[in-house]
Amino acid sequence: MATLLQSCLESVAPWLYKDSVAWTAVGLAGTALFGSRFFVQWLYSEHKGRLAVPPLFWHLSFWGSLVSLIYAIHLDKLPIILGQAALPFLHGRNLWLLHKRRNRIAGLAPATSSPGRRLAR
């Protein structure tokens, strides 16, 4: 029985809805990537001696949420898809802001994002 997305996507991506050990591995990989970000942040904060968020945290957040979204689409369950859908965009935006900040610090980008508006340091 086709579900939410399967009826639309199965003709172009039949592999997406074939249950296998590989799909279980994809789901576990997404969970491991996303979950490991907390361990990385904790170690980084301990190293700094204060609460701190390393750039790796945002990379793990982005890739973990993207892999988890792909797995959610494989499962084809609306609550899981909706719970994962916005996360890659949010974490991707944080990566973009991090990239812009690094460029600004390196002198590769202007200090303002729009006329009259300074970026926070």
UniProtKB/TrEMBL annotation:
SMART domains: LAB_N
Annotated keywords: Acyltransferase, Membrane, Transferase, Transmembrane, Transmembrane helix
Domain of life: Bacteria
UniProt key word Transmembrane helix: yes
Entry coiled-coil feature ranges: none
Residue stretches making up the Lipid A biosynthesis N-terminal domain: 26-97
The name this protein goes by in its record: Lipid A biosynthesis acyltransferase
Taxonomic lineage of the native organism: Bacteria, Pseudomonadati, Pseudomonadota, Gammaproteobacteria, Lysobacterales
